[in-house]
Amino acid sequence: MIASDTAALPEVVGRDGKAAILVAPGNVAALSAAIHRLLGDPARRAAMSTAARRRAVEKFSWRATAAATVDVYREAIAMHREGKPC
Which end of the chain has fewer CB atoms within 10 angstroms, the N or the C? Predict the structure, then answer.
């Protein structure tokens, strides 16, 4: 995957280069180079595809989202019990 390094896209695909190549918005040369790099490297495309799927399941599945929500509630409850503002 190739994505622009803007808004929430880096959070979704990660900045480590495992699931996607990030390019600066409007940088046509970087986009072209990334496309050529992936077109010429089927093994990297396959590895990135696997990493992207794993990242999606680990970070954005319903299970992961529910667990993160529970963690936030637990933290808020603990802060309330300690008399700290949330």
Answer: C
